[in-house]
Write a sequence for this structure.
């Protein structure tokens, strides 16, 4: 299954359950926070999905912090489709939308720095993003023992 056969598009309300299911697999492994369907529905306009043969196989979301700074988050691809370029397609779609919006800098918190490094992201201290820490990190069970790596890329 080549990535060229995969469509990346804006998520629809009807995709919320699939997004929740895909991200739940990662949450169960402690890789990301659990995103209940209700939460995804609230943010559906900020999600993108990868679709292959009518099936949602991956997702990611964007979160705006300032007019110049945004985050790519909730990047998840079903296990059977990992390593096939789907994550790259999702990140590229998110970056294109952020660029269109005039965002100049995008960051991620990740346990897979190699993936983002290959896409041009550079490691940076988490403290560079106080908005993220106050908005999301204070509710995370890993707050005092965060193992995620902060990475940033200029757009």
């Amino acid at each position: 299954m080549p990535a060229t056969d995969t469509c990346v598009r804006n998520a629809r309300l009807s995709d919320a359950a699939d997004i929740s299911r895909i991200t739940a697999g990662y949450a169960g492994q402690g890789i990301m926070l659990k995103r209940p369907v209700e939460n995804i529905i609230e943010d559906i306009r900020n999600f993108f999905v990868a679709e292959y043969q009518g099936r949602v196989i991956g997702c990611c979301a964007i979160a705006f912090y300032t007019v110049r700074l945004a985050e790519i988050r909730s990047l998840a691809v079903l296990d059977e489709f990992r390593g096939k370029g789907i994550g790259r397609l999702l990140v590229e779609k998110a970056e294109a939308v952020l660029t269109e919006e005039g965002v100049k800098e995008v960051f991620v918190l990740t346990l897979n720095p190699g993936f983002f490094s290959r896409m041009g992201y550079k490691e940076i201290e988490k403290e560079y993003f106080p908005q993220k820490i106050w908005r999301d990190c204070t509710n995370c069970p890993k707050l005092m023992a965060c193992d995620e790596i902060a990475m940033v890329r200029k757009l």
The mean pLDDT is 89. The helical segments are 16-28, 37-42, 86-100, 113-118, 130-135. Residues 86-100 form the longest helix (15 residues).
